[in-house]
Amino acid sequence: MDRINVDHMLAIEEPFMKAPLEQLKRAVRQSQKLAEREVSQVGAALDTMASGAPDALGAEEMDRALSGLIDRLKTLKRKLEEAQHEEAQLIQRSKQRATDLSELDGFESAAQPEFQRWCRARLDRVLVDYMLRSGSVETAQRLAANSQLEHFADTSLFALVMATERELREQHSCRGALQWCAENRSALHRVQSPLEFELRLQEFIEMARGGNTLGAIAYAKRHLTPWSDTQLPRIERAMMLLAFSATTQCPPYKAMFDEARWVQLAGDFRSVIFRLFNLPSQPLLHLLLQTGLSALKTPACISGDVAERNRDCPVCQTETLGRLAQDLPLSHHVHSNLVCRITGERMHEDNPPMRLPNGYVYSLDALAAMAAKLGGKVKCPRTAQVFGLAEAKKLFIS
Ligand SMILES: [Zn+2]
């Protein structure tokens, strides 16, 4: 019972390890691209200067051009130093996470105090992850700082997601999301994400909404037509949109003008960025809770008859934890336990199930306690019928 299944524990920790590695990969690729582009452009400029006629550029102009190139290289150096700092942090973060997970191998039993401490730290980081995802960034940062778990929190990534989502949902602006798409174009292309097209389409729709038809046509030529290989029918429909006003009731165009598209875009942005960074769409807290709930779910929990529910069962609390259990399968019970609806306690030989004349069953302890208060009478909590305790019949389970 006390044995720790390290493989099972590691299986759910995959995103925890992968997130900083994915960020590192992306950061390295971006600085590599930046260096290649700048160096080749500076090299090409030098070649042009060297191959020109000796007096094509005056000494002063030559001096100015060279100073410009030197400044450009200095800026590149500064940017690469910043990138190097960020990469070093990500490497450090990956190491710290690997060290944390490798501790699991050293534990011999779940009862060990060191393992309990490890689990408490994990609970804190799972809560930090949950709060970051729900937008409570400051609270998450405070908990991470108090528990010394900053290296376990992907704060900057979630802060970017939240800020961009807010910009889309509340300010109705695609600026930040489009900038992110430009920085990650090749990765988006690899996963065949149409996010950038959807954002461009939204900017087009806003121009159409504002009556800027000429501007919208020019925008479509520049930003929508490059997508014609995969999005031609939608581009055609977008052009038709220009013939309608924002108050149209014509279904496809009404849906395009609908402001709910902004909420959809915010959701699309989140799912794409999570996908690129290998983050699960659900918080780890939900996965861990669902593991426990799946062991408790019985047919009674999902019965339409509310009276069938058990007040001590978290799955039966359909407004809270039960929601997480909605899509889980029923648990497989080899042995059944009978639980008294009144006390929530298990019924067995010493506390046997008693059947009232109306057919409902409760534990002897519950009925005896009730009879002691009601002068030998018991009241069925489901039907409010009153019987004498002596009328209850003991049941035998074979
Ligand atoms: Zn239940």
TrEMBL record:
Gene Ontology CC: one annotated term: cytoplasm
InterPro entries to which the protein is assigned, alphabetical: CRA_dom, CTLH/CRA, CTLH_C, Fyv10_fam, LisH, ZF_RING_GID
Positions annotated as zinc finger (RING-Gid-type): 313-383
GO biological process: proteasome-mediated ubiquitin-dependent protein catabolic process
GO molecular function annotation: ubiquitin protein ligase activity; zinc ion binding
PROSITE patterns cross-referenced by the UniProt entry: CTLH, LISH, ZF_RING_GID
Record keyword Cytoplasm present: yes
Stretches of the chain forming a coiled coil according to its record: 21-93
Pfam families: CTLH
Domain CTLH: start-end pairs: 177-215
Subcellular location per the Swiss-Prot or TrEMBL entry: Cytoplasm
UniProt KW keywords: Coiled coil, Cytoplasm, Metal-binding, Zinc, Zinc-finger
RING-Gid-type domain ranges (all copies): 313-383
Listed SMART domains: CRA
Family the UniProt entry places it in: Belongs to the FYV10 family.
Record's protein name: GID complex subunit containing RING finger motif
Organism, as annotated: Coemansia biformis
